[in-house]
Amino acid sequence: KNSINLLEKEMGILQHHDAVSGTERQHVANDYSKRLARGINKCLNVIYKAFDHLTSKLFSLNNEPIFMCPLMNISQCIEIEGFERFSLIMYNPLPREVTTWVRLPVIDSNYIVYDFESEDKVQTQISEVYNETKLIPERNSKANYDLVWKSVQRPLGIKLYSVQKTSRKESIIQK
Amino acid sequence: SENLNLNNEHLELNFDQNGNLINIKNKHSSVSTPLKQFYCIYESMPGNNSESKFQASGAYVFRPMKNSCMPLEVREYRVQNGPLFDEIHQVYNEWISQTIRLYKGEKNAEFEWQVGPIDVDDKIGKEIVIKFDSDLKSNSLFYTDSNGREILKRKRDYRPTWILNQTESIAGNYYPINTRIFVRDEPGRINRNNALRQLTLVTDRSHGGSSINDGSIEVMLHRRMLNDDALGVSEPLNEKGSDGKGLIIKGNIKVLFDTVENSAALHRELSHQVNNKPLLIFTRLDKNEE
């Protein structure tokens, strides 16, 4: 309970007028950022527990950690960069079916994506990460591409994908 | 040497030989408009910090020096086609670029923008907007969801509850945007498509925005100034990144173009999706191990 209370408290502080309008001084903006990050990190633990609970009916994580990648807007998810295989769990918070486009930053262009339920290969497209994004000084990623595919999400549902790196030969054949 | 276009089942975007967007067409509704999309730079009023009469543009106040902005054209571009989406990546200058993306089956076009670090080596503050100029007969009207709950009608140089003496022809017409802004052919205005059209922008964050001319929409993306507006902050709006230069920011705007009749359902649904995206969680475990 205390975990989500911290974000509630920090959001309360940020509802002060200067945070809403962006008219705070720079050192205050920095403090607001720190407060938000602290609150969000606490909430992430709650989200992870919820996902663990939801997914336990489908498969066991065997204490394998789950994590989020908040910097995917600048094509960065350092955690998955070294993985040959990983899984993606998606949760749709809307009470209706939605179509969404998944974009995962990856180092190489040779990945295959499987739908966990149907075990079918999913059609993907590779998109280059352009130089302008690579030059963002805060970006530490080595990802050169975004791996993109279409995902249809059930209302309030969970969708799982398995992502596997392949040999370049197999990737060229697939292309 | 030929004109370019991005196409899917619903939309067609046409570009000139230099990579500038010039036209949009909705194939289902058979409506189209010349659509010039570009980036524009307002010079910030440097002001005089001790008198509000010469107030500087700053954190509280958007106050451009002139009543027009400096338009930028595409300097270089690259096109990428594929089975799921087509995109054109456009570079406007050293610190403004964008990718226009059209996914198969989607009724909107995505404009992914990146702005910064804004160059102020010339000692001039700058405020960067993205502009969409169409031929829609909007009759001085535009619409924003400024209070986050409902769409509010806005009229240029007008306030519904008092007689306005407009002294700031740009900033005086700016309004907050939470998730969307649109212009449309107002009833009674004749257009060559024989249908009332609507151009809607769905944003991924709050902005300021306006319609300075009929059929036009502009959205403020990024600002960097060198003077304080003398309203209490006592420092210019000049945030810097980890490299000591101005911030680089990145976001996207989804563009819908359809008839007025169809648009409301489209932008409501799209805005829900943009603001309530699926949560993505990763784990190293994969299906074989499971």
Q: What can you tell me about this protein's structure?
A:
The complex is a heterodimer of chains A (175) and B (290). Chain A contains six helices and eight strands; from the N terminus they run αααβαβββββαββα. Chain A is of the alpha+beta class and 175 residues long. In chain A, strand 4 and strand 5 (121-122) form a beta hairpin. The model of chain A has no long low-confidence stretch (mean pLDDT 88). Chain B contains one helix and 20 strands. Strand 2 of chain A pairs antiparallel with strand 20 of chain B, so a sheet runs across the interface.
Topology (SSEs and partners):
The complex is a heterodimer of chains A (about 180) and B (about 290).
Chain A: H1 2-14, H2 17-21, H3 26-55, E1 66-67, H4 78-81, E2 85-91, E3 98-106, E4 111-115, E5 121-122, E6 124-128, H5 131-134, E7 145-153, E8 158-165, H6 168-174
Antiparallel strand pairs in A: 2-8, 3-7, 4-5, 4-8, 6-7
Chain B: E1 4-7, E2 11-15, E3 21-26, E4 31-34, E5 36-43, E6 70-72, E7 76-80, E8 85-93, E9 96-103, E10 109-115, E11 126-133, E12 141-144, E13 152-155, E14 175-177, E15 180-184, E16 197-203, E17 207-210, E18 216-224, E19 249-259, H1 260-275, E20 279-283
Antiparallel strand pairs in B: 1-2, 2-3, 3-4, 5-6, 5-11, 7-8, 8-9, 9-10, 10-19, 11-18, 12-13, 12-15, 14-17, 15-16, 16-19, 17-18
